[in-house]
Amino acid sequence: MNIIKINENNTIDNVINNLLQRTPNYYDDYANQVQTIINNVKDNKDEAIISYTEKFDKVKLTKDTLKVTPSEIKEAYELVDDELLRIVRRAKDNIESFHQKQKKYSWFDSTTNGTLLGQKISAISWAGVYVPGGKAVYPSSVLMNVIPAIVAGVEHIIMTTPPDKEGKINPLTLVVANECGITDIYKVGGAQAIAALAYGTETIPKVDKIVGPGNIYVALAKKAVYGHVNIDSIAGPSEILIIADETANPTYIAADLLSQAEHDELASSILVTDSEDMAHKVLEEVKRLTGELSRKEILEKSLKNYGYIIVVNSLEEAVDVSNEIAPEHLEVVTKDPFMLMTKIKNAGAIFLGEYSPEPLGDYMAGPNHVLPTNGTAKFFSPLGVDDFIKKSSIISYSKEALGELQEDIIKFADSEQLTAHAKSIKVRFEND
């Protein structure tokens, strides 16, 4: 990790520019490959995804074996121990409880002269959930992507995830999906899975929205099909920023930084502190703890390229740095974290205090762990129930109510030279 002191001659611009290099928007050299895959799936459907599954996942499937069977789900339960199943169910309850509070409802306002205005809330009909299965398997992402859709009222939820070389899906992934009531699960990954969800095949239905994380091919495929279907976001690598003062425990801070660095080589871990002593203590703890962890090589690459310890002059300056970076995960570990929280404008999820580490949010707390990355927390929000609903405006006017506005509407339409708009109003009152 690099220690950087922020002053008049040294800003965080270089840090931000380096972090932005990790976004999928900087990997357009893969775009042609992705578009070729998408076009093939559009044209050849099941045949194409079976061919790509054999090529990339080294397993040959057929139309009859693309979909996970009830017997495979039953077998998965036999491979997952009861204690882990208990934990999954507890996490599911917490996540569902949180997202229930996000539900929106239709509303209508009426007046005595015969107007009715409102907003009708409807769930999308079909959602597709992509679950990774490459370097790491994330059953927790099944919960986070599926539960908001269920709470929103989505009728049909389709899941795709790449199989292993034996044509099997990770047992815990299957169990978690089944616990959520999802049984339409297909053994396909990568850009070909996104294309199948976006355009449909003989076996896999077309959906209205695709959610879920994935590698660069998945991210670029989602980008390519956006507009034909909706997507949650084009997610970049994971990141954490921690604001800490002299009261923080350096071991806790180091452990939390490493919890994100272990995701992959492009993950970013940043400490912002007003204590130079804390900066050096955390650096020493990072070095010590890295040697104890299983993904040491990934940790070292991540920290070398995208790990920073930024020393600022005050906590107010630390907040400014954080708001500029707009991190996916923000921990505030200071004497009064709630005071600083009120000044935070840009962050995907905010964790307050030394006993609210980021992994708590990944698994058990309840808020969604699908969060905006690479500075997009300036204008994006965590995945939630709103992502699976659509809003229709409702307008109903009586003749009396429309009559009160007719002249204004006609004049407005004429000013835009839209005479047919004006005529639409006029014809309703020509016989009066």
TrEMBL record:
Q: Could you give the cofactor binding note from the entry? A: Binds 1 zinc ion per subunit.
Protein residues bound to NAD(+): Y130, Q192, N215
Which pathway does the protein contribute to? Amino-acid biosynthesis; L-histidine biosynthesis; L-histidine from 5-phospho-alpha-D-ribose 1-diphosphate: step 9/9
Q: Which UniProt keywords apply?
A: Amino-acid biosynthesis, Histidine biosynthesis, Metal-binding, NAD, Oxidoreductase, Zinc
GO cellular-component term (any)? cytosol
Q: Which GO terms describe its biological process?
A: L-histidine biosynthetic process
Reactions catalysed:
L-histidinol + 2 NAD(+) + H2O = L-histidine + 2 NADH + 3 H(+)
- InterPro entries membership: Ald_DH/histidinol_DH, Histidinol_DH_CS, Histidinol_DH_monofunct, Hstdl_DH
Q: Can you tell me which residues bind Zn(2+)?
A: Q260, H263, D362, H421
| Residues annotated as transmembrane | none
Under the heading PROSITE patterns, the entry gives:
HISOL_DEHYDROGENASE (PS00611)
E.C. number(s) listed in UniProt: 1.1.1.23
Q: Which Gene3D superfamilies match?
A: 1.20.5.1300, Nitrogenase molybdenum iron protein domain (3.40.50.1980)
Question: What family classification does the UniProt entry report for this protein?
Answer: Belongs to the histidinol dehydrogenase family.
What does it do?
Catalyzes the sequential NAD-dependent oxidations of L-histidinol to L-histidinaldehyde and then to L-histidine.
Q: What is the name of this protein?
A: Histidinol dehydrogenase
The record lists the organism as Natranaerovirga hydrolytica
Supply the source organism's classification.
Bacteria, Bacillati, Bacillota, Clostridia, Lachnospirales
